[in-house]
Each structure stands twice: as structure tokens, then as C-alpha cells.
Amino acid sequence: MTKQIHLTRRSPYYWRVTINRPPLNIFGPDTIPQLNEVITAIETDEQVKVVVFDSAIEGFFLTHYDFLAKIEDTTSLPPGPTGLQPLPDMLVRLSRAPVASIALIRGRATGVGSELALACDMRFASREKAILSHFEVGAGIVPGGGPMARLPRLMGRGRALEVFLGADDIPGDLAERYGYVNRSLPDAELDEFVDSLANRIASFDKRVISETKRFVDVASLPPDYEIAPEWDVCFASIMRPAAQERIKKLMEQGFHKPGDVETRLGYYVGQVGR
């Protein structure tokens, strides 16, 4: 199996997790065991204090689920340690891990990519190149990785519904204004800023980091029972005729291939039902 998730230990205390599934960083069932391996390492390592998630693919942080894969390859996977299905399980475990997690977003964080970013403790976006989105409603699908439980806690109900029901692309500056990300920074400054923050956190005491984060988690993270139903409803919605018809139309226009549909997915899902 081709390595899609690369773990680099910049020091015992500071790790980088780089997503590299060319050409579009689409998340498929074959990505799940690799991400699970990384999440388990983050949870269990006694030294790591901060982990940054980034991408090796120009224009894409992490995009949507692989709709070309057999649905059974995902639905047949057993639940994870939390009792949730594999993707929401890993995202919940990342949120609760005793380390600081940071998403460095340069390019599209679409669907699963947004869900991974939301599961991280902090999100920093390229002002010129970052796009966050939940396109799913426009494709006839209910999002499934827990974003409806997470996003309203960051930006409020009205703005969250705008993101989900509008199903449009959210550029870096607007994402910052809405609270989707911590900050959007000029692209030329993004790497240095995130690296500096990560190194600063890595210099602090791990126990104090994990204990402080645990109290913030109690005040801010959604309970599992809010996240669990999203997965089942998501896959039920994918099988409905409305979703199948919309996904087929998007595929005919170039969905899952390098090109304008993937680059401007918000525009195309807004046209597919007209």
C-alpha cells in the first residue's frame, strides 16, 4: 500500500504529519489505517507535545471522501476504541489526545479535510490559498465526520448553517472572520508562524499542556453521542437517489479529477441541481 500519511519527528516533542495522496489528497478507505496508526502514536507517545498536520500536495490540504471506492470498504470496518466508526473515532481521539494539534491549511480543506481541521486544537490558514468547505449538502449528502457537532461551537448556529446549507467555498479571510480558523496569514508567513508556535509549545511541560487542554476540552468539545449519528445518516444519504444523481453529474463534469470542478467545487455543487 502506498504511504499516504507521513510522520516526521522534527524533535521528540514536535511532530509533523504530512498528507500525500496525489493528485488531490482525496480521503479513501485505504487512508483510514494509516491515519489510525498516526493517531495511536500521538496518543501513546510519552514525549510528543505538539503535532502539525500539513499537506505535500499543491492546492489541497485534504479533500472529500473517495466516492469511487466501494462503500462496503468503509461500512465494513469495525468501530474504533471510542465505539464510534473509524473516521469519527480517529477525529475524537485526536481532539482528546494529550498534545496540542495544529492544522496548517494551504489549499482546499473540503469535507473530510474540514473535519480533520476541526478536530485539531488550532487551525491556521493561508490567506491567499486556503479554502475550507462542506460541499456535501449541495451533492445531496449529510456530512458524517462530526462537523455539525463541532462547527457551531466555533462560529455559532447561523454561520454554521450558512457553511453547511450554503455548501460554498470559504476563503481564508472569511474563515478567520467566522471563527472557522484561528487566523489567516499571508502565505509567505504561514509556515514560519506555525513552526514558531509549535516550537514554543514544544518547549513547555507536557503534563501542564495535557492538563490545561483537558479542562478546555470539557468546556468545548462535543460529547460522542452528538457525533455518532452523523456517520450513519451520512452513509444513508449517499445511497439515496438524490445524492446518486448529483454525484453522477459531478463525476461527468470532472469530480475526482484534477481540474476546475475540484478547484471550484463550491461553484459546481451550486449548479448541479439547477
Q: What would the average pLDDT be, to the nearest integer?
A: 97
Task: Label the structural class.
Answer: alpha/beta
**Strand percentage:** 15-25%
CATH topology: 2-enoyl-CoA Hydratase, Chain A, domain 1
Care to count the β-strands?
10
What is the distance, rounded to the nearest whole angstrom, between the alpha carbons of the first and last residues? 40 Å
In DSSP terms (H or I, runs of 4 or more residues), the helix count works out at 13
Rg over alpha carbons: 18 Å
Total domain count: 1
CATH architecture assignment: Alpha-Beta Complex
Weakly predicted, low-confidence segments: none
> What characteristic shape results from the CA principal axes?
globular
Helix content: 40-55%
**So, the CATH homologous superfamily?**
2-enoyl-CoA Hydratase, Chain A, domain 1
Largest sheet: number of strands, sense, barrel closure: 6 strands, mixed
Order of helices and strands: EEHEEHHEEHEEHHEHEHHHHHH
How do the strands of the widest beta sheet line up side by side?
Answer: 1-2-3-5-7-10
CATH class: Alpha Beta
